[in-house]
Amino acid sequence: MALCRGGFFASTDPLKRKRAVDDNRRAIEEAAELGTDKIILVCGADPAQPLEVSRRQIFEGISSILDDARTAKIKLAIEPLHPIFANDRSAINTLAQANDLAGLLNSEWVGVAVDVYHLWWDPSLEKEIERSGKNKSLLAFHISDWKTPTVDMLNDRGLMGEGCIPLRKIRSWVENAGFKGFIEVEIFSDLYWRQDQSQFLRKIISAYKEFA
Fold this sequence. Notes:
Elements: E1 3-7, H1 14-34, E2 38-42, H2 51-72, E3 75-78, H3 95-105, E4 110-115, H4 116-119, H5 125-134, E5 138-143, H6 167-176, E6 183-185, H7 190-193, H8 197-211
Parallel strand pairs: 1-2, 2-3, 3-4, 4-5, 5-6
Helix pairs in contact: 1-2, 5-6
């Protein structure tokens, strides 16, 4: 399992960028204390600057914590987010970009996370999952579903089977790429969070068995 989350390296403010690096170093320490072996990176963006600048800052931010990750034996999983979040949550929006960034960083301690909610729409997804498998950089796999209509892009994810994501197809791509880790259910949902959480858990288990 992974600690979620690190990241948010991009900012026009140098002090915020420094604080982000410090926060990520603390996250590495926390991950080691918890006994997990990876951190999910939501890389960040700043709407006050071009995406290219944010991406350069993300590269610099991850580079600056690599020694800490190596020492603690914690892997850093770059998670691309859906383009609707490119303004302020992540300038890394496709698995190709995440794979490219991991390649530039060129470290066994950096890889990628595949979250179907963010990536199901990408026509290059199968090819990029295969690429990450060949690079031995596929570190995490998250599932949920995309509802129609979606009333909140961040907190209205569906249970598996409630939406249009081809979960079993994507799972087959991930497993064919050699991924053998946990399949993590990640449902951000104001609707479900208001419900009895024991019932929610039972719904998750049922939906996972039937649709994932």
